[in-house]
């Protein structure tokens, strides 16, 4: 017999018994009873217990304060894990944000952390941020954009390790590694390399005892598979990536002898509808992480004007553009295309750089275009860029004095940086230059909520989005559970319409 979507949903938290007219061989009758299913049961309960959460759901960090302290606070209050988008912010700004979070959530709430992004263009920045995290008692760090382990990530883990009376190693500091490649994931899954540990000990940054403990446990227990997402991304498909990281975990554990079940692999990127959440948990994800969709929430650090642009996006309204922090290396980020010319302009800037051009060697027409994009003559833009780079990276500044192509790159990086800043500030005269990190998930979310209370951006809160996604995933899991046992469930019942949760 069929079961309606309304019945599935209304009896989600009850035992459901179904009388089937026939068994698989077409003979006789059978009775199948299904236990209750709760959103809290989706994923790995060890994850929720380790991080003090109700749901195995992470409100992911969006850099430069887009994931605001307010967003983290609301995530914690509704039973999720939240990460402050501290990457790229100055230490004093980060410190103020951490104070706001700690004050609102209190000392007993541990389901939150902050973001550390690999910053090769800013020597010493990562160390300063980790120092601040340690000083302020931040116990959860989300490491993103790393291609290899850094000493400061290892240091964060090592300084939180201790041994109990029974000899077990426990950790106070937790690293979440956001990765999209198996070779990177393996570095975080394995114990810290001996050369990094020896250097940290020699520099007096960790003790000999801490180095010994760090050599026996993984650097990170929580690995986030970052599929096709907004911002930094390798545009990986979720299912192959998740499978790849599971196999990587097994390889590492075979080499190290560490229990593979201590490593929890979550999934982010493309998590925007109940279908995405349910699929992730069905694959075995310990937790899910949402990113792009939270940018349109009222707690987001994006301006209202930018959030309205996001709310109009479709799944195909995205494009790749050069990343501000790794412009010269050709690293790209995924951004919103609809309503802005940023991606097109950014790619043209990178083409000029790759050709070896400098402002002085460009044609008059190209210089006019560049001045128009910058909103000021190139020489004026260079003077402002120069003043910043001399403080942040003196070596780069010195090289640029005699290298016109390098000057072009640094000014281009400033434009890319400002594109994101204009989107946060809501600069009315620079809408066409907004850099808004966005993946296809945002468009999928917009399609799902169309015509419901979640369509207007003023109703999009972290709480309502998270609860609807988890409840919807439980609904779909119930339908899948019944179908897998041979119950006839119509295809149209594999859907969930957003509802307002109190």
Q: Please identify which CATH superfamily of the largest domain we are dealing with.
A: Aldolase class I
Major sheet: order of its strands?
A: 3-4-5-6-9-10-12-13
CATH topology of the largest domain: TIM Barrel
Structural class: alpha/beta
Q: Which sheet architecture does the biggest sheet show?
A: 8 strands, parallel, barrel
* Gyration radius over CA: 24 Å
Helix content: 40-55%
CATH class of the largest domain: Alpha Beta
Give me the number of helical elements.
Answer: 19
Q: How much β-strand is present in the residues?
A: 5-15%
Descriptive notes:
This is [Acyl-carrier-protein] S-malonyltransferase-like inserted helical domain-containing protein. Pfam families: FabD_helical_ins. InterPro entries: Aldolase_TIM, FabD-like_helical_ins, PfaD-like_TIM-barrel. It comes from Hyphomonas beringensis. The chain has about 500 residues and is an alpha/beta fold. The chain folds into two domains: about 40-305, TIM Barrel (Alpha-Beta Barrel); about 320-435, no CATH class. It is about 45% helix and about 15% strand. The protein has helices at about 5-10, 45-50, 70-75, 90-105, 125-135, 150-160, 180-190, 195-200, 210-215, 240-255, 275-285, 305-310, 340-355, 365-375, 380-390, 395-400, 405-425, 440-450, 460-485; strands at about 15-20, 30-35, 55-60, 80-85, 110-115, 140-145, 160-165, 170, 175-180, 220-225, 230, 265-270, 290, 320, 330-335. The protein has an eight-stranded parallel barrel, surrounded by seven helices. A three-stranded antiparallel β-sheet has the order 11-15-14. A two-stranded antiparallel ribbon has the order 1-2. A hairpin with a 5-residue loop joins strand 7 and strand 8 (about 170). Helix 11 packs across helix 19 (about 460-485), helix 15 crosses helix 17 (about 405-425) and helix 16 (about 395-400) packs across helix 17 (about 405-425). The two termini are about 35 Å apart. The model has no long low-confidence stretch (mean pLDDT about 95).
């Amino acid at each position: 017999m069929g079961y309606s979507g309304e019945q599935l949903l209304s009896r989600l938290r009850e035992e459901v018994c179904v009388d089937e007219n026939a068994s698989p061989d077409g003979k006789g009758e059978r009775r199948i009873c299904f236990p209750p299913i709760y959103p809290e049961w989706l994923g790995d309960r060890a994850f929720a217990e380790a991080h003090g959460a109700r749901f195995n759901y992470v409100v992911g960090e969006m850099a430069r304060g887009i994931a605001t302290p307010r967003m983290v606070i609301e995530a914690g209050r509704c039973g999720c894990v939240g990460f402050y988008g501290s990457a790229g912010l100055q230490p004093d700004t980060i410190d103020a944000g951490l104070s706001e979070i700690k004050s609102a959530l209190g000392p007993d709430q541990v389901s939150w952390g902050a973001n550390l992004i690999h910053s090769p263009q800013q020597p010493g920045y990562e160390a300063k941020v980790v120092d601040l995290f340690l000083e302020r008692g931040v116990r959860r760090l989300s490491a993103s954009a790393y291609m290899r382990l850094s000493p400061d990530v290892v240091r964060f883990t090592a300084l939180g390790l201790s041994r109990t009376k029974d000899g077990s190693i426990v950790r106070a500091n937790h690293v979440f590694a956001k990765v999209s490649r198996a070779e990177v994931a393996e570095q975080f899954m394995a114990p810290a390399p001996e050369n990094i540990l020896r250097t940290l000990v020699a520099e007096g940054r960790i003790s000999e005892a801490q180095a010994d403990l760090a050599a026996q446990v993984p650097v990170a227990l929580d690995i986030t598979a970052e599929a096709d997402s907004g911002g930094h991304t390798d545009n990986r498909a979720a299912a192959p990536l998740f499978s790849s990281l599971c196999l990587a975990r097994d390889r590492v554990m075979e080499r190290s002898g560490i229990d593979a079940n201590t490593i929890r692999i979550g999934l982010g990127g493309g998590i925007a509808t109940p279908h995405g959440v349910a699929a992730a948990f069905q694959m075995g994800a310990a937790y899910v992480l949402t990113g792009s969709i939270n940018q349109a929430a009222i707690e987001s650090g994006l301006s209202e004007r930018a959030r309205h642009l996001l709310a109009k996006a479709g799944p195909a309204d995205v494009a790749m553009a050069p990343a501000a922090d790794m412009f010269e290396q050709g690293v790209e980020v995924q951004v919103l295309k609809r309503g802005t010319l940023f991606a097109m302009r950014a790619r043209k800037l990178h083409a000029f750089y790759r050709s070896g051009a400098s402002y002085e060697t460009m044609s008059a027409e190209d210089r006019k275009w560049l001045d128009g994009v910058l909103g000021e003559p190139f020489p004026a833009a260079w003077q402002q860029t120069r003043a910043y780079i001399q403080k942040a990276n003196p070596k780069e500044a010195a090289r640029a004095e005699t290298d016109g192509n390098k000057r072009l790159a640094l000014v281009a990086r400033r434009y890319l940086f400002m594109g994101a800043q204009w989107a946060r500030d809501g600069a009315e005269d620079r809408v066409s230059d907004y850099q808004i990190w966005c993946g296809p998930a945002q468009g999928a979310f917009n399609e799902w909520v169309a015509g419901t209370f979640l369509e207007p951006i003023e109703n999009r809160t972290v709480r309502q989005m998270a609860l609807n996604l988890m409840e919807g995933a439980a609904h779909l899991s119930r339908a899948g559970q019944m179908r897998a046992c041979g119950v006839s469930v119509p295809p149209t019942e594999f859907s969930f319409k957003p509802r307002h949760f109190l």
